[in-house]
Input
Amino acid sequence: AMLSTHMFGENGKMKEYHYTGPVEHKFSPYAFNGGTVLAVAGEDFAIVASDTRLSEGYSIHSRDSPKCYKLTDTTVIGCSGFHGDCLTLTKIIDARLKMYKHSNNKTMTSGAIAAMLSTILYSRRFFPYYVYNIIGGLDEEGRGAVYSFDPVGSYQRDTYKAGGSASAMLQPLLDNQIGFKNMENVEHLPLSLEKAVQLVKDVFISAAERDVYTGDALKLCIVTKDGIKEETVPLRKD
Amino acid sequence: MALQDVCGFSKTPLVLRWNSPSWSSVTVGAPHGLDGGRPTWRHACSDKDGCSENSLSPFLLASPSSPSVPLPFSLSHGTTTLAFVFQGGVMVAADTRASCSGLIACPEVHKVMPVHSHLVATASGSGADCMFWQRVLARECRLYQLRNHRRLSVGGAAKLLSHMLHPFKGTKLCVALTLCGWDGDGEEEEDQDMRERASPASGEQEDTESRTKMSGRGPRLYYVCSDGTFLQGELFSVGSGSPYAYAVLDGGPRWGLSVGDACVLAREAVFRATHRDAYSGNCVDIFHISSQGWRRREREDLREEYYRDREQRGRRQVQGGQEPHTGEV
Output
């Protein structure tokens, strides 16, 4: 394509509009397909949300390509970055879940899936999956759990995390609203499900305002002990 | 794999290949793929799991000497970790910021991880590499303990790690771990501790210091790095904030400090480093390793410390009427 990967900086943003000068064209196996993923863990629930825009350079490939994938009845994963690697990675995770189920006769827990994903990602340390993963689900005690990863498998458990193209914009907002950071004399109330859902919707509306790769629609997956509920909310399409 | 061929990954050296554990016998939590980097010819297929080949193993093979693909993202770096040996054991401290080319990827990372009851490893470098190699080291130490009915010494663990990292020399792997621990069986520990506590005079202290260093027991500190460095020492500070930490730590005596004073010194060093280094910050984790094992102090946010420190300096200026000496412990 005319807009190849060399014109993009590290985080997928374009470099210069009219670049005049010698450029060496080389094939790059990676592409940046945009998209933002967000996960929030509550007392007895977890929410994984993503926008549904699939873009590349100046084009939009699809307005209906959600980035949340259901893994088990208690776990959802959100993958953003290079769509090709997202698809392959989710296929590998599904296969490994089935293998585990057949050999151990039980479903993998969220923590186990997170540990497994870390080793899957690290096995490609020298040719990484260009995917930013966030797992959201319930742990063995029924409490909400969020695990965030970097492309090579470093991970840890969080209460909330934003990943993808608008992550730098959303993470500070979540730090303030959910983590109560940088606020004085504020009562730390636990987050209820309704408030969390409303917060996620508001936060994505803000992201769609300022990030070109985020928009079209928002898909929410709400994980509770009663199962996984899905909700779709429209976002800016421009 | 077709894509690897297109990118020029089809060349893999015949001698060095990675044991890829067979996919069918994977248990949860077992590090996958790069199995400690042991070359296959050394083990002659005695390890059944490691040597079985299947159609998926070429997918996992990545030769360390092949040209790497330019990555469109950067991995997390930047840190301040420090550790020093003193009469009460080893004092270890680290900040908790993981930065990724200007963005703070996570403000609450654990850079100090226990390996076993008497050994702790601090991590610096790429986050994923440190996490992975700490897990591999913990696994190998546990296997040694089960096979030999005793804990692996700190020097032994450091040498093991250094040998495991050696095949990756020259690749993009970036790991710098300081292994901090206490060598010994535990029985004769208490006698030595009592003798040390009963001799407060500095002359006697030197004796106990040299005795501890020469005997097979006592606090130990090793630095192991992915470029092949493997050093024993009494003070190490690693990371982008280490110059600032060294300045504080080198400023006074260390061996004779009490546990409380050593803790204050370590905390001050990390605080000064986080103040001046952009890539270090947020909280400080402090661990203390003695003959009884490792103990962890509660994580402390350093944001308030800055204001407390400024206030203290203001008060000293008012009292002394002159420029206060900064960095006082």
